[in-house]
Known about the structure:
Elements: E1 2-6, H1 11-20, E2 25-29, H2 39-47, E3 53-56, H3 63-68, H4 70-91, E4 94-100, H5 123-138, E5 143-147, E6 150-151, H6 158-168, E7 172-175, E8 179-180, E9 183-184, H7 185-191, E10 203-206, E11 213-214, H8 215-228, E12 238-241, H9 262-268, H10 275-286
Parallel strand pairs: 1-2, 1-3, 3-4, 4-5, 5-10, 6-9, 7-12
Antiparallel strand pairs: 8-11
Helix pairs in contact: 1-7, 2-4, 4-5, 6-8, 8-10
Amino acid sequence: MKIVVLGTGGRLGAALLRKYGDKFDVAGFDRTQVDLSDLNEVREKLRKTRFDVLINAAGFTKVDLCETHPDRAFLINAEALRVLAEICSEKSARLIHFSTDYVFDGEKREPYTEEDEAAPISVYGESKLAGEKNVLAAQDRNLVVRVSWVFGPDRPSFVDAMIKQAQENERVEAIADKFSAPTYTHDIARALPQFFDREVEGGILHFANAGQCSWQEYAQWALDCCHDAGLPLRARTVGADKLKNMASWIARRPVYSVLSTAKYTKLTDTSPRTWREAVSDYITRFYSKK
């Protein structure tokens, strides 16, 4: 099976390429090799590349920049996906595309299922939802995987920023009134091959580590794990901040965007491990060595 991964310069794409390198015939393209903002380049490069599965982990993910550059957001997150889907249809290949919990408005107070209506409240969320629709309209075997709060070793994320702050400052804070679930790139990469076969049902699938938390809880657990691992930190406690204090933010964010993984569990007879286990594993693997 020939796999192509787009977005290998990013956190998730790099993890997928590394994980599948010794299991599949896999090729990866970063933004310098395939730029989703150049649709002609996308067509030229991918039409002459053989593959059975195309995994798109690329996108315009800077939420506030999407708000100020909506044309670029829709070009990369939506229009490029229509082109990718067309190419996959031509090749009878499966397209697996990563989307986001930000397609929801955050008004719900229990985990969102794949059947819940998407109602984004930002340009980023709107562009990602448009991309989902383009992927699914092309052929029913394509798969959209929604993930949330993705972290991993290949590119710094929220958890790395909090650890760095705690190493440098005696006081750190994180938002306590916004909720979702962290998702470890290692766990995504391990779960995804079950869906490579085109005979497996397509559609929308939610995947995140189990449970839910605020950014404050997430950060506090990370610092606790660092302490247990013997990492020196100047701050041991994460103070509570509020969403309303984020004056520098341009785009609105959903307050609650926990993704239900019940469908994934039903399809695979396995449940994602908890976010606490995943964060602990990440810190043990990648910070204990530093």
